[in-house]
Amino acid sequence: MAAWILVTFLLVGVCFLLSRVCWSRTRRAKEPPLVKGWPFFGVVLEYGKNPLGFLQSAQQKYGDIFTCQLMGKYFTFVTDPFSFSAVMRQGKNLDFKKFSMGFSQRIFGHTDFTSPMLSESYRDVHSLFRQTLQGPPLQQLSQNMLGNLQTAFQHCLPSERCWKEEGLQCFTTRIMFEAGFVTLFGKKAGLLQPEGMGAVGSCMQKVMQDFHAFDGAFPALAAGVPITLCRRAWRAREALAKGLLHRELHHRMCISDLIQRRMDAFDRMHLNETEKARTHVCMLWASQANTLPAAFWSLYYTLRNPEAFAVALKEVDLILAQLPNDKPICLSKEQLESMTVLESIIKEALRLSSASIMIRVASDDFILTLDSGQEAAIRKGDYIALYPRLIHLDPDIYPNPLEFNSCSQSWDGFFAMNEIKQFLLLALWHYDLQLSELHDTLLPDRTRAGFGILPPSQDVFLRYRARADRGRQRLTRTPILVDLSTRFPASRVHTPRHHQGN
User: Which GO terms describe its biological process (predicted)?
Assistant: First the structure.
């Protein structure tokens, strides 16, 4: 036994020395500082615990640009916000498609669309986003989403006298996931009638459970863990794919134009049926993974901030009180755009919760010149990473960066803005809402950094009931005694009235 233990230690030692030789890297002239770490794994443990803290600490120690190893790959982080544009201009030296396609193929299991036989056809597929997510097609998609949101809200509408309690994250996810899924992928014809609602809820609950099981393993999958080692996530992904096979989708009604045209394009490319379905799983994840936490944070900060809540509620009432009570809510593009208070709230919530990383792959050796004039040599095959959250939480850019400021205009755009705005509008219109835990500020889950909008680290309880005064002017309410002129532009402020929760 002792001999075997000695042999094991020797083998481990040899492997360690070999790894130091094979995976060690020496900094070349003009290259960014190299952060020391473990062989192959690099600084993955320090980064994984707190990405923002690690990057801030490394920035203080090494400057605005530095390189570190993560799971065998070298990432050069550019932390100077004024140099982000310099990186984005390096189109001929930095390749986004190679990284994104390899990442997507490994996690979702679809075919390699960069292969010579498919790359040209896939460019046509990619162009469908521009054709179906702007102008009149986007307006139609937004209107369909609004209708599906109203259906989802009505599924468990409580009475005016009875308070219901539910986790805010559960509440948000349940409504947004159903509405978003049906908007993209439609409904089965037999479940369109009211008597089919129970079946819809059961089917949707299973899809949502599979989505969360797959999404929960996403950080591990992104770090390089094979999905075959994450059995629950693999089973969930395959279950989602099974429900999105083309033979299943052909039995659904009201499928979005985007998905229908993607289906037609993939059929012409002669992919196998499972690979087609896995591309739809990828689309499902892309449409939900950021939208769900973004909707959560938007409602959370609305309810936590009395000033934001008051003016948001007034804005919603002014728009919807003009509409007929006996018909589903239908909003024009102009009406959606006029809700500037809701938009401001959403943008600020996104600033506080977004943690996406923009990554490119160096297609050749080249010299990157930063805004400061500093030159950095970049190696072919290395990854260049930009982390905008460093800007969003910079006190030199945003005073008190961890505080919610509902008049902030820090966000540059978000594809799901209409969805979240409609969700907030309907939540404030249908319900009296109260958070039962207001003493502590909820923090985002830092382990999800790099994938977009961070989910909450835990759920909070929400109390809600049907609004008794919906559709009537709220002239009998006691006004909140607070000066909002310094928080909101004068053109956006309406006289707020207190929303009584008892």
Answer: bile acid biosynthetic process; cholesterol homeostasis
**Dihedral sign, Cα of residue 335, residue 337, residue 338, residue 340:** positive
Residue 501 belongs to some domain of the structure: no
- Residue in this structure with the two tokens 């460019």, named with its chain if needed: 123
Antiparallel, parallel or unpaired: β 383-386 and 375-378: unpaired
Asked if 459 and 170 count as a contact pair (C-beta separation under 8 A), the reply is yes
- Provide the Cα torsion 165, 169, 175, 180; round to 10°: 180
Pairwise CA distance, residues 241 & 90, whole Å: 37
**Triad 427, 244, 450: Cα angle to 5°:** 60
- Does residue 369 share a domain with residue 221? yes
How far apart CA 188 and CA 252 sit, in angstroms, is 4
> Strands 73-78 and 65-70, how do they pair?
antiparallel
Same domain assignment for residues 383 and 285: yes
Residue 307 domain-assigned (yes or no)? yes
Residue ranges at the known binding site: 106, 290
Nearest-Å Rg of the Cα atoms of the chain is 25
Residue 260 and residue 263: Cα distance in Å, rounded? 5
**CA neighbours closer than 13 Å in the CB half-sphere of residue 99:** 18
Residue 72 lies in a domain: yes
The backbone torsions φ and ψ at residue 93, rounded to the nearest 5 degrees and listed phi first, read -105, -15
Q: Are residues 69 and 111 in the same domain?
A: no
For residue range 246-280, list pLDDT tens digits in order. Answer: 999 999 999 999 999 999 999 999 889 999 999 99
Share of the chain above pLDDT 70, in %: 81
Query: Mean per-residue pLDDT for 210-221?
Result: 93
Same domain, 75 and 111: no
Residues 46 and 138 reside in one and the same domain? no
Please indicate, yes or no, whether residues 422 and 284 belong to a single structural domain of this protein: yes
Q: Give the mean pLDDT of 302-319.
A: 94
181 within 8 A of 285, measured Cβ to Cβ: no
Where is pLDDT greater, at 397 or 313? Answer: 313
Q: What is the pLDDT of residues 56-82, one digit of tens each?
A: 899 999 999 999 998 888 999 999 888
Give dist(CA 363, CA 96) in Å, integer.
10
- Claim to verify: residue 161 and residue 310 sit in the same structural domain: yes
| Residue 462, pLDDT above cutoff 90 | yes
Give yes or no: residues 10 and 149 share one domain.
Answer: no
Residue numbers belonging to the annotated binding site for substrate: 106, 290
The number of folded domains in the chain is: 2
pLDDT-derived band at 488, boundaries 50, 70, 90: very low
Answer yes or no: is pLDDT of 194 > 70: no
Q: Per-residue pLDDT tens for 106-119?
A: 999 999 888 888 88
Give me 54's structure tokens: 């690690």
219 within a domain of the structure (yes/no): yes
